[in-house]
Design goal:
1 helix, 53 residues, mainly alpha, 40% helix
């Protein structure tokens, strides 16, 4: 059996961002949101969340 390369690879350079941890959290929340919508076949509405001070 031959090992295949991954179908998708994502790289994000977070060094130049002001708040790289926030970007990571937002990215993961977005991916999970899209996957849950895809799995359930429903549109999941997002409500605004207040930003921390």
């Amino acid at each position: 059996m031959t090992e295949r390369p991954p179908l998708v690879a994502v790289e994000i350079d977070r060094r130049s961002l002001d708040d790289p941890d926030h970007l990571t959290a937002e990215f993961l929340a977005t991916v999970i949101h899209h996957m849950l919508g895809w799995v359930t076949g429903r549109r999941i509405v997002l409500r605004p969340f207040p930003s921390p001070p």
